Amino acid sequence: MKTQFPEHFLWGGATAANQIEGSHISDNKGLSTSDIQPFGSFGALHPRQEGDFNIKDVAIDFYHRFKEDIALFAEMGFTCLRISIAWSRIFPHGDDAQPNEAGLAFYDQVFAEMKKHHITPLVTLSHYELPLHLAEHYQGWSDRRLIGFFEKYAETVFQRYGHFVKHWLTFNEINITLHHPFTGSGLPDDCSEQTRYQAIHHQLVASAKAVKLCHEIIPDGQIGNMLLGAMMYPLTCHPDDMMKTLQQNREWLMFGDVQARGYYPSYMTRKLKELGVTLEITEEDKEALKATIDFISFSYYMTGCASADPSQQDKANGNMLQMVANPHLDASEWGWQIDPTGLRYLLNFLYDRYQMPLFIVENGLGAVDTVTASGEIEDDYRIQYLNDHLVQVGEAIEDGVDLMGYTSWGPIDLVSASTAQMSKRYGFIYVDRDDEGNGSLKRTRKKSFYWYKEVIASRGASLKKPGRF
User: Hydrolase: present as a keyword of the record (predicted)?
Assistant: First the structure.
């Protein structure tokens, strides 16, 4: 079925401050947890030592080149750009009495440039980083005081930018603390389950408080959550595999359930009991959680399988998770299995569950790109990947899913969150920089740049049936 996407549909791309900005200590910015992960999120237990190279210190230098980059996004026809604000640019230590004006002024300029090009900002408050001081001196989100620090930060940026920024997200892939506590919450990766889930609870309360503030300060604003969409299929139709799949999907759906419904789902009572976890939940917490989100946003890169059989050892890596491999799917160069139909499935699943507007805020293919002798990048593999996924998005819209928009991950090459590589490229725009930090940082349009421009201009009418490239 050929679908033309709705006129109001938001088209664009998604980025994160710590993966594009660079200038990691410029203009009074404080260090963040990301700044001491020179090997990416997988290297959390091998923190940066003095003198260590971290490619994110410069990243792609968006801090100085944002006008050029935003102009390129506008040339593609973007109507939306997802960025994150670096918390430690605004409050360098996280617990500062006053915000850093230089940091606030930087995002003033970024949003002004987006306004100039008629691009709607979608802004994430915390994207895989928090001020390092909060991790070192408060043990990250395990400390209840971080709720107040985050509330103050959210209030500051809502008041500063609310006249233009109307679309917000609280925590990027909030469920990542289940798998990488340091990346998600500033905790040691070997922390106890008690510490992990108490930190998660504090984040959920902080998120709800930010939602309430957004509705008060920006009455015409909308604020959503952001999930790592880790949809699992049963490896077989054995009842034990079905039950295992239900349980594994609930691990990440719990975050959506709390943020969309305003309370913990009943299945968490047994889960926490079996883990030996007793959460400290105050009456004020319960009241705070009632401030629910306006829409559900999520990342989607792959699906996985679940099996109750411990002998199933064939694993598939993906977006900082390990899952049982699906024997029916191909995989990317980094082992991420490719499942366009899974995106349609997930969209329908989430809409059936929540009956709330959805927003795909990450989806893309990490691949090695080769520059030809004439300076061109023929990335047909990326075009095929995105085309096939967007065809399934169109099918979901025809299914009746209320979808706000689509922002592909990494519209410009950026530093990989998981591995701190430049060679794992996602962008429509090539950035001349390698994994050792060499290169001119010159921007070059890839073949996919012109393809995505046509997709946006035609509102999806130019998409081809899968396998037709």
Answer: yes
